Amino acid sequence: MTPNGWTLRPVAIDLPLAERFTIATESWDAANNVFVEVGYGGERGVGEVSPDARWGESQTSVLDDLQGVDLGGLAGPFDLHGILGLLPPGSARSALDIALHDLAARLAGISVAELIGTGGRTLPPTSVTIPIAEVDAMVDRAKRLSDHPALKMKVGFEGDVEAVTAVRSIYRGRIRIDANEGWSTEQAIERLRALEGLDIELCEQPIVRAQLDDLAEVTRGTSIPIFADEDACTSGDVARLRGVVDGVNLKLRKTGGIREALNAVSAARTLGMSVMLGCDLTSGVAATAEASIASLADYADLDGPLLLASDPYPGVRYDKGHMTLPRGPGLGTQVEL
Fold this sequence. Notes:
Layout: E1 7-22, E2 27-40, E3 43-49, H1 59-67, H2 91-108, H3 112-116, E4 128-130, H4 135-144, E5 150-154, H5 160-168, E6 174-178, H6 185-195, E7 200-204, H7 212-220, E8 226-228, H8 235-240, E9 247-250, H9 252-255, H10 258-270, E10 274-277, H11 284-293, E11 299-300, E12 317-319, E13 322-324
Parallel strand pairs: 4-5, 5-6, 6-7, 7-8, 8-9, 9-10, 10-11
Antiparallel strand pairs: 1-2, 2-3, 12-13
C-alpha cells in the first residue's frame, strides 16, 4: 500500500496460442502479455496488454514502466482523464488505463461500457483471423469458420492473391485482408487490383508505416478501401491520415487505452473516416475493454481470446462472431493474478 492509498501490481503472464499465428513480419506460439492490478478503497481493477516488439516494447519494458508510475498524481479513482498524463501512449499506459476503468466502474457498481456511455449499444460482429499458412490450411480454417459473418485474412506473402481467391471460392461472408506492412507500394497496387473482383471489404496497412505519400498512392490506386493500422496510433496520427486512407484500425495498445481511443474515434468521425477497432493476442480482460467501445466503430476485429489455447480470464462472450458484453461490474471478468 502506498501512502496515498493506491496499490499497483504488474505481472507478466504468457498465454499459449491454439496454433502458430503468422503475419507478414513475424510469428508467435504464445502471447507474452502483461497484466496489472490496481487497488483503491478496498476495490481493485485489472488491465492487460500484449506488448509489441515492433514498437520497442517487451514484457520487461512494460513491467518497468508500470512499476515506475506514481498514481498519487491522480485526483482519485475517477480521474480517468488524468491517466493521459501518467505515461505516454503505448502498452504500459494501455494496461494501466484498462485497470483504472475497471476499478472506477467496480467502485460505481456499473460496467465499463456504462461508465463511458456506451452501455446497451449494439456491437458490430467481429471478424475472425486466418493467419498465414499453407493455402490448404487457410482454406480449411475458412471452412471451419463458414458460419461466421466476417473473416480477416493475413496477406503480404508470395501467393497471397491465390490464397484469398481460394478462400473466396468456398466462403460467402465478408473478407477483410491485412498486409501488416508486407507489400511494397507497387506490389500493393498490383495485388489489390487483382483482388478487386473478390468483394474484399477492406485492406489494412498495405505498406510500411510512415510513408504517407506512398500510402495515399495505394489508396488512389484501388477500389478496395484502405485502412491504416501501424500508422494509426493516437488522435494526432488520425488527423495526419486525412486524405491518405479511407479508415483507421485503432487498438488500445497503440492509443494507450480507452481514454485516447475515444479521442481517436472522435477525430476519425470529424474527418469523415471509417473506424475499425482491432485487437492483439489477449485474454478476455483486454478484449472486454475493447468490446466496451466497439459500438462506436464501423468494424470490429476483436478475436484475440479465440486464438488462445484457452482463455484464463473470459469476459466478452462470442457466438459465431457476435459479441455480448458481461454485465459487470467493471469489465465483468474474474481475475486472480
